[in-house]
Amino acid sequence: MLKNRTGFPMTFTVALVMLLTLALPRLASAQTDPNWKAQWEKILAAAKKEGKVVVLGPPGDLIREAMTQGFSKAFPGISIEYSGGRSGEQATKLKAERDGGIYSADVFLGGTTTANTQLKPMGAQDPIKPALILPEVTELKYWRDRRIEFSDKAELNLVFVNQIKVQLIFDPKQVKVEEVDELYELLQPKWKGKIVINDPLPSGAGNVNFRWIWEVLGAEKGKDYYRRIRAQAGVVDRDQRRQIEWIAQGKYAILLGPSDGVLQQLLQRGLQFGLLPDFKDYGTAITASFGAVNLINRAPHPNAARLFINWVLSKEGQTAWSKAMEHVSRRTDVSTDHLPPYQVPRAGGKYWISHTEENVNRSDEEEKILKELFGR
Predict the structure, then answer these.
(1) How far apart are alpha carbons 318 and 331 in whole angstroms?
(2) Do 43 and 131 form a contact (C-beta atoms < 8 A)?
(3) Fewest beta carbons within 10 Å, which of 35, 50, 255, 328?
(4) How high is the pLDDT of residue 22?
(5) Are 118 and 152 in contact (CB under 8 A)?
(6) So what's the pLDDT on residue 162?
(7) Cβ neighbour number for residue 121 with a 10 Å cutoff
(8) Going from the N-terminus, what domains does the chain have, and what CATH number goes with each?
(9) CA-to-CA distance for 217 and 203, rounded, in angstroms?
């Protein structure tokens, strides 16, 4: 049996199939402005005068280099200041600045939970559709399902990644994949104290993982599972890199709810661990991971921001993003050949769409139990 570099068996033929169901995020059409060339030249000239764009994005040297080097090569007259970090923490910092009258950021690249539960309430986003100018960005033939996808009804948060959410990673020296490939197997006594939980309270992969559990089990079973898995945990942590390193080092056996964006970069750095993309009894989720873009309002470099957004959504920008983050781009002309097959949605898979505005928001009942169990 063939195996990928993580040791997960590749027994299925993958196909990138976007699922058109009622649960799908907001899908919007776009149309190229016939005067786009003149508009583009005007924005390009103004961006050169601004001289810089400030981008908040995912953590990691690989994505930092891909974004800064790629954009600088495309637009050598404009510098890029890239600040990487966990999306929720980036949004908290952004709010603190704005509360103090400081407006330093132009573009926010990050998770849809952060966009819908933090950026939107603080009123930090500008409509992004008017900023889409280049035909290779606006023409629908370049996008899966011939749609540009938004996570929210107001169309402020544009999603450019759709891929399978990895449910957990594990230390192969302590765990066999068949011991943890069903959801309730994690509750077995032998795993008590050996599980790391990516904290589900803040926005991020842990949040998505627990939202998925709640949705697939229902409220009553979900509450019971939350209590029991919390009792199993050796530690609850928010440092997404450290959690993964603990598993690679063998300090803990299992990490529930790893950050897909961080783990793929660490795999490229040579860390080794097993992973489980989906549970055979309940499936998994489709996630945007860090793959969504927001145009920040009151931006100090509004024209350079529009330039960057068009670049990152172009074939060149999406290829750079996909290779650095190992993400499945929604562009039809960006190859998935370099990606592990387990990331690519396949026909017949059990998927819950995690990044819609509706699915991001927790009920009062779920919020209460999570704060009871994980509140600090």
Answers:
(1) 8
(2) no
(3) 35
(4) 37
(5) no
(6) 96
(7) 10
(8) 26-162+289-345 (3.40.190.10), 166-284+363-374 (3.40.190.10)
(9) 21
Contacts of residue 3, defined as CB under 8 A and 6 or more positions apart, other chains included, come to 9, 10
- The Cα 302–Cα 131 span in angstroms is 10
Beta sheet of 233-237, edge-to-edge order: 233-237, 195-198, 254-256, 168-170, 274-276
Predicted pLDDT at 113: 93
Structure tokens at 104: 């330093």
Amino acid 256 reads L
**Cα 264 off chain centre by:** 12
Beta bridge partners of 168: 256, 276
What pLDDT does 318 receive?
98
**Run of H or E including 64:** helix 61-74
Q: Is 135 helix (H, G, I), strand (E, B) or coil?
A: helix
> Which residue positions in the chain have pLDDT lower than 50?
1-24
- Please report which helix (H) or strand (E) contains residue 261, including its range: helix 260-268
Global model pTM greater than 0.90:
no
